[in-house]
Specification:
The protein contains 15 helices and eleven strands. It is an alpha+beta fold and about 375 residues long.
Amino acid sequence: KRPLQRSEHMQQRPASAASARGARAVDQESVLAMHRVLFSSEREFPCAWARQGFALRGGSFACGLKQHQGGPCGVLAVVQAMLVRHISVGGVLAASSEAAASRLIDSLAGIVWSARVGRLATVVSCRAPELPPMREAGDHLVQTSCRSEEEVRGAIQAAAGAYTRPSGGGVALLLYSMLLTRGLAMVARDADFPSPLVLPNGYCAQELVNFLLCGRAYSNVFDGERVVGEDGDGSPTRLRGIPRPVPVGFLTLFERQGSLLPALSGGDSAEGCVTVGSHLKQPEHPVYVIQSEAHYSVLWLASDAPPELDVADTFDVLYFDQLAEAEHPTRLTLRRGHSPPSHPPPLESVLLTRWPAAAVVDWNGAEPLL
């Protein structure tokens, strides 16, 4: 059998374990309230979100996730980055299909557990093979309370068929779990200003990406907090960024684009709001979610070499796009120099925000991504 089929078979076994931890139905009003936080209205998940599970590709890159359509790429990319973090040994991802499936459960459990406020987390599963419509979901969704990360892992393992079915509701179930774990009121207060987690165009807001990366739906990518407007006539505003180092990092093209714009007058410029802080640029593991335009993908160091070009003249990184048809990561070689290109392609521009001395990015025979 294919690994995914085996995984789904395994996932059906421990249903009684979830019942032993006090699983109960998610009431219909809670479902509607979660959608109001996600979309700022009682809106259904777009089809690209509702029919997207965390399915592994199998084959030569066993830990690669497969995305069907554009939209939930930010969610898929964070989970992919966490999965790489769990499997990578010196940049090598030589895991079997069984090991990749197990580490995927670890990755999902860690993301949910990071959203807790105290010592309690919630895992949401679905009795139906597909995500039901919002106004019928209360008849099919089940929530399980967990008092440790290991219990979260067990609850997700018990419901893993629902999470990993290729066209199942895995993405939605992960978001439901995080919302109930953090608490809807807390998530709504995390953002600097009222904002949906899923934008009207069907893409992830920065708050949602941050929610997945650090368990808090804060609005910014700088370190800690900033207060703006202290010298003005109005009340100062506190802006919140990433509060602590995170397991995997984040790099964005918007930082490079902002650095090319002239600074605005008046002290803190718009450039400051798109400067990624050290908590995301120097994560606990050298794995990064990459935002280029409206798409998210993943990049990680290919070895244990020092991740700085002032220490090593050259080193390799691996890049993977879960929406692309490629069955394995692309190896890029970064080389130090004094004159970075003036108009590099978007992905290379993102790399320059982390490694500004990378004057040459060698695609090693692969077609450069524009």
